[in-house]
Structures are given as C-alpha cells and as structure tokens.
Amino acid sequence: MATRWFVVADGRGRVDWSFTGDSDLKLHVLVCRGTPAGYLQRLRDLGVGYFVVGDERVEPRAALARIRRRLGATRVIADSGGTLNASLLREGLVDILDIVTLPGLVGGAGTPTMMDGPPLPAGVLPRRLDLIDVQVEGAAVRTRYRVRTTDGPARSMRTGSPLKARGSVPHA
Q: Which parts of the sequence are annotated with region: Disordered (predicted)?
C-alpha cells in the first residue's frame, strides 16, 4: 500500500514505464483481458500492480469500483486526456469539472480536445453544468462546474463520494 496512488489506464500495453513511484507515490495500472501478456509480465517485473477491469477495453465504472475497494480511495481526480474525460462524464461518474484554460489557439481536424469521443447518439442530450466559480491568474482562467444529472449531482462509484475531473485546453 502507498500513501498516494497515480492510476493509469493502459489497456493496450503501450507505456514503457520509467517512473513507477517513490516512498510516497505508487503507480497502479488499469488493464483489460485483451492487454498483451508481455506487458503484464513487464508490470510484474517492475513491481507495478494492476487491475483487470474489462474485456477489450478498460471499463471506467469497474475501474473506479476496484480502486475504491482495493486501494481505499474515496475521491478520485481524473487529470487525463479527452477520451477518458468524455467516457467518465458520459457514464455519469463525474461530479465536478475543474478546467484551466491557457491563452493560445490550436485548430484543425483531429486536434485533441478535453472531451473526445464518438458523437452523442440521437436523442441524447449533452450533460448540463452549473458554474461554481471562476478564477483568473495572470492569463490563465480556471472555471469549476458541477455536473447536473436528472436525479441530482453524479456520485463517483455510486457510493456518494464526489469525483472530480480536471482538463486542460491544449495551447500553443
């Protein structure tokens, strides 16, 4: 066990880890049944723990439940890319969005965003947000939003603990 964890989803086994933690912080990887066996062996060789949470891809709901049960986490901060951010939001696993916008514009087809993924299905409405606060530090703007749901704010792992997600807008 560690005091703090950084948990990374890598179901395809792409990351070649050079930092796996220190005396206070420990890496733990989320994988799926389809993750290459050689990658799992590499994690074992490095002394890195992993959870198998899904068949062909990492399943966020199963991952959060396992993190809570096995690591004792009651709050998770997702500081990730647009694909995972969108997946967590669409599955109703996000309570608060904390977004830092930096000056600069990036454009073009295929440019990553903080919420990537397939288009919403027909008849599905976007998640509504309520502004909590705005802070300006120099040229950076930080906005925090509470995610609305039809039955009140989303709760992480359906246990009542809030889940926060942070995203950064790409900048030049």
A: 149-172
- In this structure, what DSSP letter does residue 83 have? H
H helix runs in 3-155, sequence order: 37-46, 60-66, 82-90
pTM as predicted: 0.75
Q: For the segment 6-55, what is each residue's pLDDT rounded down to a tens digit?
A: 999 999 999 999 999 998 899 999 999 999 999 999 999 999 999 999 99
Question: Which residue segments constitute the domains of the chain, with CATH numbers given?
Answer: 1-93 (3.40.430.10), 95-105+126-150 (no CATH)
Supply 2's token pair.
């560690």
Residues 91-114 pLDDT 10s: 889 999 999 999 888 888 888 888
What is the C-alpha radius of gyration for the chain, rounded to an integer number of angstroms? 17
H-only helix segments in 47-142: 60-66, 82-90
